[in-house]
């Protein structure tokens, strides 16, 4: 861990992304403070909250914990729109999940990244196989080359943060062809972005990648039939779509009907997507 301070990190939920070292703690719904003397020595406690619906719980944890320790107890994370301009490997994410840049120069109205991370900033490169940058393709060529160099020693590489389709170029494809790529995540969040997505996907297919490796975030939640058409087009172009319901990051929780949730689930699991597409492209009634 690069941080000079020793930090006990508290996560409301254990996920495939959260760290598992001796200074990471999962209270699992319990509010009471744990026996802090059982942990290795620490200077601060950080409660890391990713989802808005965990915010109240995290605030309660902060109040409770602060009563039992002299060390500062801080609460933050994406749910609190905390500024995140730097990156310390292993602190709030598993050590193999890395950011080589923060921020994004775009201003997509549904996205919180430019608000909490600002404009794109390249960071020192740490080893890791999951690249979580929000817009890696906006980094300059020299930075990308250094990242590719780091990745030559990695296996099961995933570009997970979402690759901006119209920035996929021959330089990117040439470099990733010689890497042990597991997943490449593109994004196709609006109907207007379909042409750029199709071009990028076709370039990747031509470069030797298939639907096993090409994945695509697809934002849904406004017009179900139009969303279904976009999801199907993404699939037919050669990528495996992953539906994401649009969330309002300013409110605590965006509620969707059962029908919308069923629709999203249908388009989040490759087995159900393959079966759905095999049956034909007719719009399915998700209310049944
Ligand atoms: S959705 Fe992607 S491209 Fe758009 S602002 Fe967010 S990070 Fe940038």
Architecture (CATH level 2) name of the largest domain: Alpha-Beta Barrel
Quaternary status: single chain
Helix content: 25-40%
Helices and strands: which structural class?
alpha/beta
Bound compounds, each kind once, are: iron/sulfur cluster
Enumerate the spans where pLDDT stays under 50 for 5 or more consecutive residues.
none
Mean pLDDT across every amino acid position: 94
Total DSSP helices: 8
Biggest pleated-sheet summary: 6 strands, parallel
Q: State the total count of DSSP E strands.
A: 12
Query: How large is the radius of gyration?
Result: 20 Å
CATH class of the largest domain: Alpha Beta
Q: Give, in spatial order, the strands making up the sheet with the most strands.
A: 5-8-9-10-11-12
Q: How many domain units?
A: 2
């Amino acid at each position: 861990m690069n941080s000079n301070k020793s930090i006990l990190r508290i996560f409301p939920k254990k996920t495939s992304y959260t760290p598992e070292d001796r200074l990471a703690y999962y209270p699992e719904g319990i509010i009471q403070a744990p026996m802090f003397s059982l942990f290795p020595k620490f200077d601060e406690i950080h409660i890391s909250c990713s989802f808005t619906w965990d915010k109240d719980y995290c605030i309660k944890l902060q109040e409770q914990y602060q009563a039992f320790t002299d060390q500062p107890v801080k609460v933050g994370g994406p749910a609190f729109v905390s500024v995140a301009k730097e990156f310390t490997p292993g602190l709030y994410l598993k050590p193999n999940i890395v950011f080589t840049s923060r921020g994004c120069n775009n201003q997509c109205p549904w996205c919180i990244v430019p608000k909490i991370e600002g404009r794109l900033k390249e960071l020192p490169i740490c080893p890791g196989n999951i690249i979580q940058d929000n817009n890696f393709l906006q980094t300059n060529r020299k930075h990308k080359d250094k990242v590719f160099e780091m990745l030559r020693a990695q296996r099961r590489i995933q570009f997970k943060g979402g690759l901006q389709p119209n920035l996929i170029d021959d330089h990117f494809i040439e470099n990733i062809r010689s890497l042990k790529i597991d997943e490449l995540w593109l994004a196709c969040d609006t109907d207007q972005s379909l042409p750029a997505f199709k071009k990028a996907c076709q370039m990747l297919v031509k470069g030797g990648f298939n639907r096993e490796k090409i994945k695509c975030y697809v934002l849904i939640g406004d017009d179900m039939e139009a969303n279904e058409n976009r999801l199907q087009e993404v699939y037919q172009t050669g990528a495996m779509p992953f539906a994401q319901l649009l969330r309002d990051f300013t409110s605590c929780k965006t509620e969707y009907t059962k029908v919308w949730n069923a629709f999203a689930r249908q388009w989040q699991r490759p087995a159900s997507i393959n079966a759905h597409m095999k049956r034909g492209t007719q719009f399915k009634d998700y209310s049944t």
